[in-house]
Amino acid sequence: MVRLAFPIYVELLTAVVAVSVIDLLWVSGLGESAVAAVTVATTTEYLALGLFLAVQTGLTVLVGRRDGRAPLAPLVRTGWLLWAAFSLAVAVPGVLLREPLAALLAADAPTAALTSGYYLISLAGLPVFFAQCLVDGVLKGKGNTRTPMRNALICNALVIVLDPLFIYGLGMGVQGAALATVLARLATVCLALLSLVRQAPADAPGRAPAWEIVRTGLPMSGDFLARALAGMVLVDVVARFGVAAQAGYGIGSKIMLAGVMVFYALRQATMIRTARSEPAGRPLLLGLGAGVAVAAVLNLVAAPVAGWFTADPGPAVEFLRWMTLYLVPFGGLIAAGGVLQADGRGGRLLAATLAGFAVQLPLAYTLSSWLGVTGVWLSMAAGALVSLGGAVLTPGALPGRRAGGPGSARGRGPRSTRTAAGPRSGP
């Protein structure tokens, strides 16, 4: 599990770095408005990814179920049709509405103008981003997590080189950061397509039902978007306690993201192995253990790392200390969720997530009125506990699969003992 999850962790972490930290570091020399514009624009891109996640996750699960049993080409063809539909539905309105969208999200007119300029290129480049996600989804379904990791590292290296060239060398400013990222992704997609052609050849005519792919991945997309929206609500709650508290929350969240990616890597690993009818071990215990480890490391590095971002690291450090109560149940929830998603019970996982937010958000307002910003941190822990309870109390959810369910071994033909990567290992 760790060997499978580690490349996913590197891929997730570097993908986040490529679209946020690297661009932010290079545009920081252009002033606060440029930094704010890139922050707003990359957040919007993050939400767009949440929409396409239904296609990416659906392909990963269904490719995993069919690999070695049924032709994959119909699934891949339908995936590309969905890619075209999602690209048109998201990119075209985004480009046309970029100015009002920027005005809605940016703090002032100069920042809105810069954000709109970034949107013109970044939103038009979303089809490239979605194509990369689609290819990665197919490769992961085949059990290959190293190629997506390699692609993410190559993309980051290209962004590091191209950013200063376009931002400062060609004088494009904020738009240069967007163009550098899109071109880096385009080059990476070309490499990724070569891998896809080699590992998922056109082995049969026809197409798979589009709704089957979307339905399979929709709960994961809903979970992603729900968390993003809940995070926006918490930003509003924390803002009532002043700029220092809001800045501490923002800095602490970014630091915590490096640890949280461990949980999401484990979720993808458990999802891949479950879909492929391979043993997933004890994902709940693995996730809870990862939560303890991540919390311990973040407590250890909280003060020095927060000091890199601000002269007053106190609020961020306090946030990370309290997050111990949140990270442990959250780690268990995310890691165990991969089994439910691959087994066709992603709706149950989404319901557990929404139940947690139904508890967390009212508590955030109530407890913060008594305990200050600490009440917000306690509400996050309470919401994670409720979500974890809702997920693990699902009959037969852990550690494996339901008998005869969509992702179970029962009722399915024998799997070939080899994959494109070579002999399949035993339990």
From TrEMBL:
GO molecular function (one): xenobiotic transmembrane transporter activity
Segments crossing the lipid bilayer: 7-26, 75-97, 117-139, 151-171, 249-266, 286-311, 323-342, 349-371, 377-398
Key words, A-Z: Antiport, Cell membrane, Ion transport, Membrane, Transmembrane, Transmembrane helix, Transport
The keyword Cell membrane is annotated on this UniProt entry: yes
Subcellular location: Cell membrane
GO CC list: plasma membrane
Single biological process term from Gene Ontology: monoatomic ion transport
Sequence segments annotated as region (Disordered): 399-427
Low complexity composition bias: residue spans: 411-427
Keyword presence, DNA repair: no
Domain of life (superkingdom): Bacteria
InterPro entries reported for this sequence: MATE_fam, MATE_MdtK, MdtK-like
UniProt membrane topology term: Multi-pass membrane protein
Record family assignment: Belongs to the multi antimicrobial extrusion (MATE) (TC 2.A.66.1) family.
Reported function: Multidrug efflux pump.
Name the record gives this protein: Probable multidrug resistance protein NorM
Originating organism: Nonomuraea endophytica
Lineage, opening ranks: Bacteria, Bacillati, Actinomycetota, Actinomycetes, Streptosporangiales
